[in-house]
Amino acid sequence: MKVGVALSFAIIFGAIGDILMSTGMRRSGEVTVTSLRDIPSFLADTFTNPCVLAGVLSMALYFAAYITALAWVDVSVANPLTALSYVIASTYAFAYLREKIGWERAAGIMLITVGALFVGLSS
Question: Domain span at residue 39?
Answer without folding.
Answer: 2-122
